[in-house]
Every structure is written in structure tokens, then in C-alpha cells.
Amino acid sequence: MNQPTDDSDPTTIVADNQSTVQMYSPAMMAEMLHVPVRAIRLWHRAGLLVPTQVIMKIPYFDYSVLSTANTLARWFHQGVSAQSVVKQLVALGQLRTDHDATISDLPISLNGKRLVLSQGDLQVEANGQFQLSFEDSDLTVNDEPVTFKFTTGIKPEHLQQTSDLITDLLEAAAQAEDDGNLDQAAEGYRSVLAQFGPNADVCFQLAEVLYRQVDLSGARERYCMAIELEPTFVEARANLGCVLAECGQFESALLVFAEALQQYPDYADVHFHLARVLDDMGRKSDALEHWRRFMQLAPASPWADEAAARLSEASGSPLDGAENG
Questions:
Q1: Are residues 113 and 249 in the same domain?
Q2: Range of the domain at 288
Q3: Cβ(115)–Cβ(75) under 8 Å?
Q4: Is residue 109 situated within a structural domain?
Q5: How many C-alpha atoms does 220 have within 13 Å on its Cβ side?
Q6: pTM of the model
Q7: Which of the residue ranges 1-15, 146-160, 164-178, 196-210 would you say has the lowest mean pLDDT?
């Protein structure tokens, strides 16, 4: 059984054999799997990706979750949207034969863009329709069956006591975002805010859409609003710092990153982005501290190669931190 480390290093855990296990933020996992970070967040909210730890609302996943995440990402790359993956898996979970048992270990395969659940010799689609056994049909199966452990009907925490209307509006906005209809998605999130009042999480989601639309000014405004509504929303601070840096407002970005680290000193993502900004400003010696701290916190991160290269460049000697950190 794994035990969390103390608060000084929340991006690793210590197993019974005392070896350290790397943990990954949503942004890191998205980079590794080449999927949008919104997909990782959606799968986490739906209960498909279970974090090892949650630090200031940021879920962290250990390597054992990557197998499930990799399968979800493969389906995503094969044309099944992130939202559709959730809906189909939830529907398949509700089709289980033992309704008194917790949904677990479901043998699921992908056929085209449809997920199918094996029940004996039958293959059941999410809509409840049965298919012939793949062994007796001409259908092509794209994947070996994979098992999941998840719960159905999970909503974001801030929505659990709200009306079905809010849920429907947010699901529609998320689906539009998934489909690439960013104008419709942004309008959906704005509609929720207009009808039901300010909400930090919805502001954050709207900021993410605006950023994808390259509306940096709008994204900056919504991240700021999310922080105003929830001052401990450290991920919003991190993203705000990145937007400010992209806008060329480096000094403001440094201040925001510093505030984020004051709240969460071992936020590896922020150390990485802060080091980048300092490097871009020519403050190489200041950047070194944060490159080093990032490598200590996240040596197996998909960004570790860049950090190691920056450190190597600064020291004039090769570093193997990406592999051996």
C-alpha cells in the first residue's frame, strides 16, 4: 500500500519498499498522451482516472493510472471524443448484469467509434443493442478488451446540488468544446455564468476555451475572475501566469507565478514555466533554481528533457536528469 509523502514533496509518493513513484499533473499527462488537458480533466471528473493525491484541487496520478489513460487516449485519437468516451462508458456500466455490484473490471473493446461490452458470447453497445460475437462476424476489432474501475453519474463537485439545467448547459458546452465548436462552447459557459451567477470553475473552463481561441485578453480576464472568486485556485494562477508571459507581460507573470508558489511551493508545473520565463528574460542564474527544483519534483515528466537541456546548457556539461533524476 502506498503512503503519501509529507507536504514538502507532493508530486512523489513513497511505496512500501521506500522507492519513490513519480506522479503526474493533468498537464503532464496530457503532454505524455498527446491529448488536450481538458480531456484529462473531463476523464478525472467522470471518475475514469482516479488520482493518487489531490493538492489544492489539482489531481495527481501515478504510473498505474497511465494504462487506463493510454487506452482512453487511444480511443480519442481513433475519433471517439472525450465526452463520448465518458457517456459510452457510463452507459455500458449501467448495462452490467449484476446491478447490485459496483461497476468494475468491465471488458470493453472499440469497434469503429462505438465501445462494446463483452457479456459472455454477446457484445453490447452503449445504446443497449447486441452485436454478434466478434469471432463469428466480419467486424474488425481495433483493441484488446480493457478493464476499468469507475463510478457512474459523477458530476463536478460544485454541481452536485444544482439543477439539471446547469448540468445540461455545462455538458452541452463541454460537448461543443470537444467537437471544436469553440464559439458555441464559450457561449454556453457564458450562459451558465449569466443565469446562475459567478463560479470559479466555470470561469476557469471559459478561460480555457478563450485561450484556445487565442483570445488572450479574454482568457486573462476569466482566470483573474476565477482567482478573485476562489483565491486558493492555484491552477488558475498558474495558467494566468502563462497567459501573461505569452502577452509579453513578463514581470506580471513572475509575480503571479511567485504567488502560486507561495500557496503551493512544490507545484512542479509552475517551477517549469517560471524557469522558462526567467530564461527568456535573460535571468539565467535565477532560472537555474527553478529548473533544478522542477527536476527534483518531476524527473519523469514529459518536460524533463527540456529542463535537463537547459541545465546542461547553463553548466556546460551533459545531464541525465530526464532519465536518472
A1: no
A2: 158-324
A3: yes
A4: yes
A5: 16
A6: 0.77
A7: 1-15
